Fold this sequence. Notes:
The protein is an alpha+beta fold. Helices cover 38% and strands 16% of the residues.
Amino acid sequence: MGEADSWELHEQDTLIAGAGLCDERAVRFLVQNAPESIRWLQSLGANFDSDGGDLELGREGGHSRNRIVHTADRTGWEVERVVVEQVRAHDRITVLERAFVTSLLVEDGQCVGAVAELDDYGQVAFFARATMLATGGCGKVYQHTTNPPVATADGIALASQAGAEIDNMEFMQFHPTTLFHPQMRSFLITEAVRGAGGTLRNHLGRRFMYDYDPRLELAPRDVVARAIEAEIKKHETWCVYLDMTHLEPARICHEFPTIRGRLAEIGIEVEKDWIPVVPAQHYSCGGVVTDLHGRTSIPGLYAAGEVASTGVHGANRLASNSLLEAMVFSLSAADAAADEGTPAQSATLPDPVHCIAESEVVRLRRSLQKVMMANVGIVRNFEGLREADKTVAELLHRYHGLPRAPYARYPLETRNMMLAAQHVVRGALRRDRNVGLHYNADLAEER
Ligand SMILES: Cc1cc2nc3c(=O)[nH]c(=O)nc-3n(C[C@H](O)[C@H](O)[C@H](O)COP(=O)(O)OP(=O)(O)OC[C@H]3O[C@@H](n4cnc5c(N)ncnc54)[C@H](O)[C@@H]3O)c2cc1C
């Protein structure tokens, strides 16, 4: 969108971030269609920040130009606001809230709809000429994540059970500094705090980045995340600390009012206290494989958003390409879906998915999240990955060995998380070199 920018430069930055594993056709499709999808959002009423009629363009890590169209620090919220308003106002769209899709309907190799559990109605089958998965990420597979509670990998599990191709799940992006506090989980402490001079300390107060990288706290995101994880493992502590006590109080108030205010609510005064932080899962680069029009390997089934693997991100996502990818590819998927044939009117309903008691599943979910964080997180090794593979298989076995219980969402989400975790672990075991976000300490470094 910027005068000093071009799709070629955006393409180059995306390919560099993806470390050689991007699908170049998908990247070109993204960058060439980006301005049109942003203008489309504006035409619907999205209020992006502008200065004298020109869009204000921000810059984030890995971008060679200022190009991030944004609405203060809540761009995702603004995109969602405008789309939700349009959907609700449309007389041919029916929104069913509190509906949980439990399986896809596949007949003769073609997806013909989905089965959902609706509060108040129970199980309902929907037939459609096109079915789109837009179920978001899978952060809840990990003990620490910035993702919302609904990021339970449902789309990955639904597609995988139906036989769709899934790939690149081992490329999991971690954010180095999220708050570690029981009362406020997943609160992300922006990298700008370190940019402003914030330092990282272990529980003894030592500025441990001296032991890891000469760029200290300003080393790239993955280097800082690996250092924090190593420090936590070395000292067997819960977390490390971000120290901004030496920054000018006026500067803290001016540049970080939200962080200061939110932390004050839980008794952390950033002018006096260190902030407990841990790295947390942030974004899943892989997912259900799609073409440029959101089509998966199963005819009639589409995927868009974080659940999809369009090939844009390769081994690492360039900052802010995710919302853009969701927009560009879902618009193109909508065009393709409109050309699908007549919807099926019937199909063999699958057996109800095995659901167990909520009280039984809590421990299984925690065990899964713990082993994924410890063994399939930022730094991996073969022994840990094999152990995680065995643990996930055992957890699934235990799940299916427990007696059936009436439908509840939590157990089914947990089962979906286990199925998706298998893709992450096995993808990591198959990777024979370190690339992008995948780092296996047993492999010689090839970066
Ligand atoms: C803290 C944070 C900051 C981020 N910042 C940026 C940024 O600055 N720029 C950027 O580009 N990206 C950013 N991202 C990434 C981006 O926001 C996400 O990738 C994106 O919002 C995902 O959108 P989605 O539509 O795919 O999924 P979601 O918005 O998560 O929507 C998925 C929907 O599917 C529903 N669902 C799930 N399973 C089922 C089921 N079985 N049945 C029925 N419904 C189901 C969920 O309830 C939910 O409503 C950020 C992410 C986080 C967590």
